[in-house]
Amino acid sequence: MNQIASHGQLRMSYLRWALVTVPLIMALGSLSGYLSNSGYGTAWFDTLVKPAIMPPGWVFGAAWTVLYIMLGLAIAMILNARSAPGRGTAITVFIVHMLGNFAWSPLFFGAHQITAALWLLLALLGSAIVLAFLFARIRKAAAWLLVPYMIWLSFATMLNLGIDRLNPSADGVSTRVARVQIG
């Protein structure tokens, strides 16, 4: 026996990583959106003029579910490549990138900073490209899993830019509803 681990053992190791990374990324992404009161049905967002290419609200939930699963699978591949050169750098860039990803909803929906959120999306797109190259050096399949994410980030950037242009005075504006207590 010349192998340290069999193919079956390596596959199980990857599955164990994926069983951690996929739910973790899904939970953190959901928490970010929930805490920032993101999406349709919020007073501030509903008052904004949206670009014509704006999809219905359910598309965002479906897209992010699939994308977070793909991101979780991609990082599981990298985590499973234990002795691969560049693995530490790729993991670090991924973590920093995902912190930026999770910060977008609080920035856009929570703080109502449309322009700053646009700049964050541009940084995310740039870092996703770097991340794809880093992943490709380790596992090409992990890099390919990032392609739909980069396409979605490009689309989200166009939406954010459209909202920014159509609502030039909406940055930082709050639409808090006054509460009146009687009695």
Question: Features of this protein?
Answer:
183 residues, mainly alpha, Ferritin, 7 helices, 73% helix, 0% strand, elongated
What does this molecule look like?
By secondary structure, the protein is an all-alpha fold. Helix content is 73%, strand content 0%. It contains seven helices and no strands. The longest helix has 29 residues, at 7-35. It is elongated and about 50 Å long. The model is unreliable at 177-181 (pLDDT under 50).
* Count of β-strands: 0
Distance between the termini: 81 Å
Count the DSSP helices: 7
CATH architecture: Up-down Bundle
Helix content: over 70%
Gyration radius over CA: 19 Å
User: How many strands, what sense, and barrel or not for the largest sheet?
Assistant: none
Rounded average pLDDT? 90
CATH topology: Ferritin
Low-confidence stretches: 177-181
Q: Quickly name the level 1 CATH class.
A: Mainly Alpha
Count structural domains: 1
Estimate the strand proportion: under 5%
Layout of strands and helices, then pairs:
Elements: H1 7-35, H2 43-47, H3 57-80, H4 87-110, H5 114-138, H6 140-145, H7 147-166
Helix pairs in contact: 1-3, 1-4, 4-5, 5-7
Quick rundown:
By secondary structure, the chain is mostly helical. The protein contains seven helices and no strands.
